[in-house]
Specification:
104 residues; mainly alpha; 66% helix
Length: 104
Amino acid sequence: MCESNKGVGDLFAEMIPEWAISQNNLNCDCLERREKMNKFGPKWVRQNKDDLVSRIIEDRDALSDRLKMLPTFTLKIAVSKMLLDACNKFDLQIAVSNSEDCRH
């Protein structure tokens, strides 16, 4: 893997708009979750997607007031899609890196 490649957790975090995160986000385990996703990779994220989605949604203090107003099922659909998109983006960056031998 190229040094410039980002992990699945990094890619997921980049997809989250600033307005979606609470400014009072003191007790969030978001960074720990991000690092775990980076460590275990896309296969693990896909296998544990439902649990990850539930934990992200349950961490309501991390969500902005706008998101807290949405129905839980709507949030689950959005977070699930974002996790899968991050996995697919990770897979794509690996494929590109392998085809280019990490040369720019």
